Please model this.
Amino acid sequence: MLLGFLIWLCLGLMFMGTGAYMFLSGKSVPFGFWANVEIFQVRDVRGYNRAVGKLWFTFGLVFILLGLPFLSGQNSALSVLSILGVMAEAIGAMVVYTVVIERKYRRKQGE
Model:
């Protein structure tokens, strides 16, 4: 049971590390959110990277918290909450990215 949580914790820390890297990065190129998709024209690259970094860091933190039921036992019914919670969290992250971040930082035509 501890091994499962440790693996879960490592994945959450990787998400948080990715978010911290994006947040602190001074790159002039926007980080992508979707895999294998060309990024849209960004109005403020630094602000966009910070926003996406916050999103990934928060995702990792909530991911770790959702893994806590794995500490209660291998065949615990609470582990279903972890799995369903991560699905809801992933959908929520996509909604936040699309509705909030992309709308705020997308360069409008003519800018």
The chain has three helices and no strands. The mean pLDDT is 91. Residues 79-105 form the longest helix (27 residues). Helices lie at 2-24, 45-66, 79-105.
